[in-house]
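[SOLVED] Need 3D model of a two-part complex

Original post:
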Amino acid sequence: MLKHDVLIVGGGLAGLRAAVGLCDRYNVGLISKVHPIRSHSIAAQGGINAALANNPDAKDDTPDKHTFDTVKGSDYLADQHAAEIMCYEAPKIVYEMEHWGCPFSRFPDGTIAQRPFGGAGYPRTCYSADITGHVLLNTLFERSVARGLHIYPEFVVAQLVVKDGECYGVVAIDQIKGEIVAISARATLFATGGYGRTYYYSTNALTNTGSGIGIAYKAGVPLKDMEFVQFHPTSIIGTNILMTEGARGEGGYLVNKNGERFMECYAPKAMELAPRDIVSRSITTEIEEGRGFESELGKYVHLDLRHLGREKILERLPGIRNICLDFLGIDPVLEPIPIMPAQHYSMGGIDTNEKSETVIKGFYAAGECACVSVHGANRLGGNSLLETIVFGKLGAIAIDNYLQAINSEPDAKAIEQATNDVEAKIRKLGNSNGEKSFRILDELRKTMSAYVGIFRIKQELETALNKIIELEGRAKNVSITSSNLFMNYELIGAIELEYMLDICHIITLGAFLREESRGAHSRRDFPQRNDTDWLKHTMATIREDGKPEISYKDVVITKYQPMERKY
Amino acid sequence: MTGDIYTFKILRYDSSVPEKRPEFQLYRIRVIPGLTVLTVLNRIRDEIDGTLAFRASCRSAVCGSCAMVVNGKIDLACRTQVASFDTREIILEPLPNLEIIKDLVVDMTPFWNMYEKIRPYLVRNSADPEKEIYQSEGDRKRIDQFVNCILCACCYGACPVLSRNPDYAGPAALAKLERFISDSRDERPMKELEAVNNDKGVWGCDTMLRCIDACPKDVRPTDSIVSLRKKLIKYKLLGKGNK
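Solution:
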């Protein structure tokens, strides 16, 4: 058994920031499914929001204005005190990252460069060309090296150890040694990322299964607002690799097959820089009404960058251009890019507060796996990188306070019991004669993309729910080729399937019950927002019999009364 | 069903069973145009052989997980189109110069050890300003290509020096050192360069440029090595040196 004061699960931005904040004073261990530098934070392109007021067009920008944009963008479902904390922390953490070496792009006066992004009143998105996640993750990983953080790469969590409302660590699989390892900790923070791979069309990495969210749920932690799934407007057809919102921030157009900049019909003021939920619905409507292009890889519209010119594309969007060359064989300097919306981000997640605390003592969550909620029903571009670092930092402060206040040691019996459970589960997988997990996963992902997508309707959500229940039954008999623990990716996939099914069940059930349209949750049969009945968070908790129990929680409203959302 | 039948020859080895020698295993699979090597690997593991081991994550050439040798050329599996070869036979081998853990997964520990040795972080002695440390657009541009490194170790696998001298720092670590030493904000003393003033450091490079050829992100590690050599000479001759 390994023993740490603090265990961080996940080596992306949220996990590393939490670890860096604690490892000078505590015995911290960080476990990660992949080497931290491979985490999906690396793939973020466009930038991180902070009201630095560096842009000549943004001299009167303030954290309050950032808060308002975030709350309006959330369709008023964000908890306003939490959004305000995040936006006030934003300049501090951006300067901190810069002092730690982050190579932001610069304005001619030597300050951090900022570009316009969707749903924002000012150009406040700090960036490094179109590799902002890459430079931020490298900077935090470098800090963790400087501080001698103890990292366990390629450890996969199989179960969270919770007893009587208190968390004592995890049981994990060390893939390289081929062992089950119990890790006891006085405080555990999950920074395990989103669940993009539960959708067929997603911009997310193959590792983004959302298993961390499912593991927490199974251990009794409530999940919040899971029906709010962000679909990014611009992913390239075929692979669904992301084309940053920065492409539109730099002036890119969205064009249909008639050559029209169709955003004029949907958001006449903001045009291409309306928030993502609105742009994704607009593209889908254009395609449904026959104004999209068709190809073997699917229906699409054009993201046209040609008028920006070669020089600007090479300087500001070099990564975008390389992706187009590598994966489409298209040079965006010369040709428009075929794009379609795809699942991108999870607004919902493990229910946390503004200190990254959960209802379980000693268990914390931060980043995309958590739901504070600062994004409500729709996240603004540039706010997710911000959220990871802010709530990683605030989680570290909360853990520090917690550890100073408690004296108890992890319950050895609870850890032993959990270890036995995991061993039994793996033995069963090896002995079954059932289906392969990828077949069930494939059907699950197709179901989610077909019926729990950008536009939703009662009948389709029912179809999806029935399908998920059928798949849950089949998943009980999943089998694997070998139950050897050494470098067995098929085994990991089989373990994660159960958690992915839980997540999809809750997303779909929440979407079925929420009879309104708000942010990214758009019901064809209930097209209006309904503040009287639905200005509340959806909470999902697992019951004794394994079925989800849905309840609701008030939204925190401080300064900004809900208004009609126009762009 | 459209597409051609391809034969994938994949080197299999399990370091937990060292008595069994590495050998190629053949998988026949139908490939439609536009598929990448990584997509096919995923299909093989899902549909044919659940025991096959390879690393992958972002599938968009930014996370650096899936470096391997494809038909003799080192590259990321995710950005390599199956149809880009003039043959229906695709041979996959693990990255050279590193020990195999299983199949296409190698032990990256020596690579990370070299990376950590060069102090891969911004070193500052001055107090931090309240806001950002100013940096001109030109100074930022100077570190651009080295900032782009994704630490995939393609260069490490391609380096002929590392194949005979595992103590050599290697192209990625030296490129990272150059990234920091030429950052206008970095304040590490120039005498730190002494650590690479030897055959394990900048003088070990044969300038065969294999690293430049192998890099999937257009980084030119040899440029960094040449630049570090120049800085060292200046520092030695003048007793000081500026960045």
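Edit: The longest helix of chain A spans residues 489-513.
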